[in-house]
Write a structure and sequence with these properties.
The protein is about 30% helix and about 30% strand. It contains 5 helices and 11 strands, in the order αββββαββαββαβαββ. The longest helix has 14 residues.
Length: about 180
């Protein structure tokens, strides 16, 4: 079947590529396209693409949570072209569901010449960096979780992100950022 790919599904495909997820299953329901993916940590996540320009409320959060429970999946992501109600944002945060904003780019952001490579540090790497610099995470420069690059790699508050830039004088310049709410 030659189903038309929505802009929300394109954004989800970019997200899947940026985070290194593998698509396991795609299914269409009446007003949602569900993508089951496998994360690099061999865990599964459910991505819902909601093709609407309207408002996404708590009912979608509850439906996604129900679908996650039935499938035995602990991570959910919603991609939509519309806005989220405040109640939906609060509810999603409580239930561990990530909401992708409508302004999320539908292209591979890290292929742009001005956007350096970002990566989330593993717990061992994080401890090594903090010991090497003799700092606590909160003493590092900050990056908001809502930053497009942080959102693209799935950074959550409390994570430490490594940013690798090209430098004319130093070759590669590595900096670290502590992810904060925002």
């Amino acid at each position: 079947m030659g189903a038309e790919v929505t802009s929300e599904e394109k954004k989800a495909q970019v997200l899947i590529g940026l985070r290194g997820y593998n698509l396991v299953k795609r299914e269409e329901q009446k007003n949602v396209i569900g993508l089951t993916v496998e994360t690099p940590g061999a865990r599964r996540a459910l991505i819902w693409c909601i093709p609407t320009q309207g408002t996404v409320g708590v009912q979608y959060i509850n439906q996604l949570r129900r679908a996650m429970r039935e499938a035995g999946i602990d991570r959910g992501i919603i991609v939509t072209g519309g806005r989220y109600t405040q109640a939906a944002k609060v509810n999603a945060r409580k239930r561990g569901i990530e909401l992708i904003p409508r302004i999320f780019p539908s292209f591979k952001i890290f292929e742009h010449v001005l956007v350096p490579k970002h990566e989330i540090l593993k717990p061992e790497e994080r401890e090594k960096v903090l010991m090497e610099y003799r700092v606590q995470p909160y003493q590092l420069p900050r990056i908001k979780a809502s930053d497009p690059a942080a959102k693209a790699i799935g950074a959550r508050p409390g994570d430490v992100v490594r940013i690798v830039r090209d430098s004319l004088t130093a070759g590669k310049y590595i900096s670290y950022r502590y992810v904060v709410e925002g």
